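Problem 12. The chain below contains 672 residues. Write out its predicted structure in C-alpha cell notation.
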Amino acid sequence: MPDLRRLLAPHSIAVVGGAPAERVVAQCLKLGFAGSIWPVHPTRTHLAGIACVPSLTDLPDVPDAVFLGVNRHTTVEAVGMLASMGVGGAVCYGSGFAEAGEDDLQVELLAAAGAMPLFGPNCYGFVNTFDRVALWPDEHGMRRHERGAAIVSQSGNVAVNLTFQQRGLRLGKMITVGNQASLGTEDAIEALLDDLRITSIGLFLEAVRDPHHFAAVAARAHAQGVPIVALQTGRSTAGAAIATSHTGSMAGRAAAYDALFERVGVATVSTPAELLETLKLLDLDGRLAGNRIVSLSCSGGEASLVADRAESTGLEFAPFDDDHRVRIEGTLAGSPEGLVSVSNPFDYHTFMWGDRAAMAACFTAVMDGPQDITMLVLDAPPGPDNDPSSWYTAADALADAAEATGRRAVVVATMAECIDERFRTHLAGRGLTPLLGLGEALVALDAATVVAPSAIRPQATVHAPGPTHVIDEATAKAKLRTLGVAVPDGEVVPRSEVLAAAERVGYPITLKGLGLAHKSESGAVKVGLRDAAALAAALDAMPTTGAGCLVERTVTDVVAEVLVTVRRDPPVGWLVSLGFGGVMTELWGDVTHLLAPVTHDDVVAALGRLRSAPLLHGFRGHPAADVHALASLVVTLVDSVVGTDVVEVELNPVLVGCDGATAVDALWIEEI
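Solution.
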C-alpha cells in the first residue's frame, strides 16, 4: 500500500495545464488552502491570479501533489518526469486511455509512474475539506467539517453531483479513481481509514478491481468501527455495457458482488439519495444494534405508508408487548376513548398536537421499550409564508423523550423537500438526525443494521477460464460419485439393452435419452417407471439418438427440489448459488448466492433466506427435508471443484428427502 498522505493532504501542489488547472487553483483558494500553489504553463503568466512557471523543471521545489490537466500523451511524459523528481503523487485528469480502448497507452502511463501513486487517468481527483485542498477541476458543494463521511467514486460526474447534496450530510472527503491504472477504490478506502476524522465511507463503483484487497480493507474498516456503504452500477446488461465503455472497468455480475458485499459486511443501496441518507445516519448516529424499530406518526395514512415501504427491508416493526402498550395508553388520557389504537407503526393522532409536554410524555413511553431506534414521521411546511412552529414542537417533544430515555430517535420526512435547512439545523441541535424521503430513510435504517462477521474469511481466488467443453451427464455423475456427492444408481446402455439394465438397477426407473441438450423439452426424460411394460412404452415414445440411454433408479424420498451451482465468476470469486430447483427454476427465480469457500452453517443460513425455505422445513403438514444432508452435499461439491479446471457445475435438481440429498441431473463444464 503506497503512502498517500502527501498526495491527499499536501503542503504544496503544482497544477499543470490551462482551464482545468486554473479551476483547481480557484477551488483550493476557495477552501483556504494554506500551502504553496505552483501553476505550470508554457505561455500564460498567471492562473487564477497566481504566477506561473513555464515548465516542471522550473518548479521552486518538489511538490507533494500535482494535478495534470493536459492531453493524454503529455500526461504520460509529465508523469515520468514527476516520478523522477520524487513527487508525492498525481491526479491524471486526461482521458483517452483504457476507457477508450487505448490499453497500451495506459500501460505506458503506469510504467512512467513507477512507484509514484496516481489517481486516474480519466479522473476528477479529490476534495479534502479537512485539510482545505481540492485537486478538483470543477465546482463542488462541499463545506468545511471537523469530522464526517467520505465517498470514493469511479465516476467523476456522479461525484460532482454528490457534492451538491442538500441533505445535511457532513461530507468531508470525495475521491474519484477513474480508470484505476495505479490507485484503485481499495487503495482509496485504505487511505481514508488512516484518517480518524472519517466516520463512514460511501462507494459509487462499477467493479472491484482487487476483491481480496477489498475484503481486507473491509475487515479493517469493521475493526475500526467505520461502516462502508456501496452503490454498485452496471448490474443490468445495458448498464454493464455502459460501465465498461465509460471507465475501462469490467462490471461483474450482480450476484457475485452482492455475495462479496454480504460476506465482508458492506451495506448496499440502489440510488444516490439512499447512499447519502445512509451515510448521514451512520455519520451522526453510527450503526444500529439491531433491526427493531418503532414508527410514530399522527396519521393513519403515514403509518400505512411506513408499513408498506418497510416490507422490502429487513426492518422489524414488532407489536408492543402488553406492559409496554399499557404504559403508552396511560399517556393518552386526553384522547377520545377508543379512537387511538396503540400499534406499531403507531398513529398517535392529532389530539395532543402542539402540546409539547403531552407529546413528550407519550413519546417517552413509546421509546421506553426494546426497540433499537424510534422514527417520527414529520413533514414540515417549508414555505417562507408558512408557520412551522407546531412541527418544531413535535420534534422537540421527540428530542425530550430521547434525552429522558437515552434511546436513539430520528425524524423522517416522507418527502425530502419538507425538512428545509433551517429545520435540519434545529434537529441537529437537538441531537436528532433528519432523514429525507420515506423510502430512502427506511433503506438507510436497514443498511445501518449491517454488521460484518467477527472474522471475514477471504474468498477463493479465481481466474477467467480458457476454452471449455461440456461433459455428458453420465460422466458428470461418475465424477460426482467419486467426489462423494450422492447420485442415483444407474447405467449407460444402448437402447436395445435398456430393459435388461433396468432389471439390474431396480425399479422404479428413470429413463433419459442422451445426446440432447434439453432432455425435458425433447421428451427424453421419463421418471418413476414402475415396471417393464411402462419402461418399454416410454422407450418407444422417446426420440432416438446415437448416444444411448441412461437408466437410473428413481429417487422416491423427495421433499423438495433444489438448485445447486458452483461457477467461476471473475474477478470476484467462485459463486455458489442455491435455489428452488427443477424445471420451474427460471420461472420462480428464487435463488440466493454465496462466495466460496462455504461452511455447513453458511449453506444452512443461505437456504433459510429462500422464499421456498418453508418447503424444506415441513410446509402444511409435509415432512421436513434433510437440510443438513443438503448442506453437506453443497460443501463437498464446493470444496472439491474450487481451484480445479472446473468452470461450472450445475446440479438441478438435487432431490432432498427426509433422509439424504441426491443430485439427479448434472451439467459439468471444464477447461479443455
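Discussion. The two ends are 37 Å apart (CA to CA). Students who got a different answer should revisit the alignment rule from Section 12.3.
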